[in-house]
Amino acid sequence: MKTVAIVDYGMGNLDSVARAVEECDGTSRVARDARELAGASHIILPGVGAFPDAMRNLRARSLDAALAEQALTRHVPFLGICLGMQLLATRGWEGQLTDGLGWIGGEVRRLEPAGEDTRIPHIGWNEVVWLRECPLFRGIPSGKDFYFVHSYRFCPADPGHTLAHTPYGAGFVSAIGYGSVFGVQFHPEKSQKAGFHVLRNFLSL
Fold first, then answer.
1. Which of 26, 71, 142, 205 has the smallest number of CB atoms closer than 10 Å to its CB?
2. Could you give the CA distance from residue 168 to residue 41 in angstroms, rounded to a whole number?
């Protein structure tokens, strides 16, 4: 059975992610420091809140360096969810300019409305269109609906890191990936059957 370290940096609904992992036949454990990350077969970085606060908390707990050691050096499969995906960027513009983890080049900027009827924050179900093959989405049809809650979007520097797109407002990147590092803007733990399929695919890596 796979052991998934769910990163606790004071932001994010850890319980719902843990329950989803258990439902997908994984074993979850909350990780608050480098010691608790060690030995995990997979890592999930959840998150709900503001980019600057999240980065401040990660650095205060030395989790930025610990996560890089596991994901980039040891190549432990890594999944960032919602804000956890955005933190992979070089920098974010939410509230103030803040350096991110910098694992996948790009910036996090506010969602662009397509017109006056575009609601921001974007809350609810919307389709996710695959742009390239990815093991995270194996067996899931392109255009499937997933659940979103966000006001900001990841803008990758390299289009080759974009895995999926969602046509809401002016459109935004809804999944990114590089090597064994993945990020999804939607919440798989809140996306019912399709979301659990994503988590099972992640645990199979």
1. 142
2. 34
- Element at 28 (helix H, strand E): strand 27-31
- pLDDT reading at 162 higher than 90: yes
Tell me how far apart the alpha carbons of residues 24 and 205 are, in angstroms, rounded to a whole number. 13
Degrees (nearest 5) of the Cα angle 131, 91, 96?
130
- pLDDT, tens digit, 9 for 90 and up, residues 87-143: 999 999 999 999 999 999 999 999 988 887 889 999 999 999 999 999 999 999 999
Q: Please give the positions annotated as active site.
A: 82, 187, 189
| Domain-wise residue ranges, the chain | 3-203
Distances (CA, A) of 85 to 50, 90, 100, 115, 176: 12, 12, 10, 26, 8
- pLDDT at residue 159 tops 90: yes
Instruction: Give the integer Cα–Cα distance in Å for 135 and 139.
Output: 9
Q: pTM of the predicted model, to two decimals?
A: 0.97
Cα three-residue angle 66-71-76, rounded to 5 degrees? 120
Helix 14-23 to helix 192-203 angle, to the nearest 10 degrees? 70
